[in-house]
Amino acid sequence: MSASSSSRFAPLQNDTFLRALLRQPTEYTPMWLMRQAGRYLPEYCATRKRAGSFLGLAKNPDFATEVTLQPLDRYALDAAILFSDILTVPDAMGLGLYFAEGEGPKFERPLQDEQAVKALKAPDLSELQYVFDAVTQIRTELNGRVPLIGFSGSPWTLACYMVEGGGSDDFRKVKAMLYNRPDLMHHILRTNAAAVASYLNAQIDAGAQAVMIFDTWGGALADGVYQRFSLAYMRDVVSQLKREHDGVKIPVIVFTKGGGLWLEEIADIGADAVGLDWTVNLGKARERVGHKVALQGNLDPNVLFAGPEQIRDEVAKLLDSYGKPEAGHGHVFNLGHGISQFTPPESVSVLVEAVHEMSRALREDTLKVANS
User: Distance (Å, rounded) from C-alpha 269 to C-alpha 236?
Assistant: First the structure.
């Protein structure tokens, strides 16, 4: 895709999310939800039915645009996230992605011998043009309402699927390769890191205003192993990303599920924000990272199965835990992982309203104290 000009897109009307990521003052705590365009929304299910399959949905820019915008039409969210899948990159490497009914993603040609690993190459980005077309179309149709987030899986998380051939409960095959043949694993991870960096930069060229790296399976690694086989390669990706486009800063978020143990180390790789899962204490996390990065998170997704008052109570606890907002710190409210497909849509309405209302009140209280 050729370099884009910001003049082809409408001016941004709500930049609260981007300001929070860059640790600038905001009038309230912005929020979005991981997997916010998904099966909990009846309108998403209807579009997916029309598309015929998940890949039919993800690979068609018109459908991808439609489902990306659906949660924004329903809720006052502060960011849109590209509707896609983390496995688009290994699919473009020729591994043959397909979705088995009731079993999730699978690869026809997983990397399970030395010959397959050594033949692995970063994909031709033209194989992913449908993703970049979707980014541009979504950004255009957002018409400046909120920023658009692009994303990729981390090199390690992609490698888990590429070696296992799909999802895994124990990561037996990928960890066996890691310990038996670290040379092969490093080859996969170097290849993935180059591919992810190029992929995210192409999304930025196409119109993404922030990008996120999902390290979903980093927390499955042992201490010491995580740093060498996941964190080092995320650092490599972050170092290659465009941090400015058309004179505008492009924030980068990294998220390792189960990565609370390594928060300080994750905050050191050069990203603007670190996502937290629900096992981490938000207030203590803020103390641990200081002014280094913004934080994103981290409500337990299952709170959304509780009643409205319980949801509001949990929002209040999280905002209180984070504490009063200050310049140099930033907080984006999110779940600690993706929203469940069984979540009642009305619970999300309660959540969004509570976050905005309570975080505004928190700032007003802070101002009153400062002026008294």
Answer: 8
> Tens digits of per-residue pLDDT, 215-250?
999 999 999 999 999 999 999 999 999 999 999 999
Please confirm, yes or no, whether 161 is among the known catalytic residues: yes
337 assigned to a ligand binding site: yes
pLDDT tens for 136-179 read 999 999 999 999 999 999 999 999 999 999 999 999 999 999 99
Predicted pLDDT of residue 364? 83
Q: Is 74 annotated as a binding residue?
A: no
Report the distance separating Cα 211 and Cα 152, nearest Å. 8
Q: In 3D, which of 295, 307, 320, 313 has the Cα closest to residue 31?
A: 295
**Helix residue ranges, H only, 59-128:** 61-74, 88-90, 114-119
Greatest CA separation for the chain: 71
Domains and CATH numbers, the chain: 6-371 (3.20.20.210)
Evaluate whether 167 touches 99 at the Cβ level (below 8 Å): no
Q: How far is CA 35 from CA 41, 130, 260, 306, 357, in A?
A: 11, 20, 21, 19, 23
The reply, when asked if residue 85 is annotated as ligand binding, is: yes
Residue 170: active-site member: no
In the set 15, 23, 28, 35, the catalytic residue is 35
**Tokens encoding 125:** 């980005």
To the query of whether residue 85 is one of the catalytic residues in this protein, the response is yes
pLDDT, tens digit, 9 for 90 and up, residues 308-348: 999 999 999 999 999 988 877 899 999 999 999 999 999 99
Q: Is the peptide bond before 298 cis (omega within 30 degrees of 0)?
A: yes
Cα separation, 151 vs 47, whole angstroms: 22
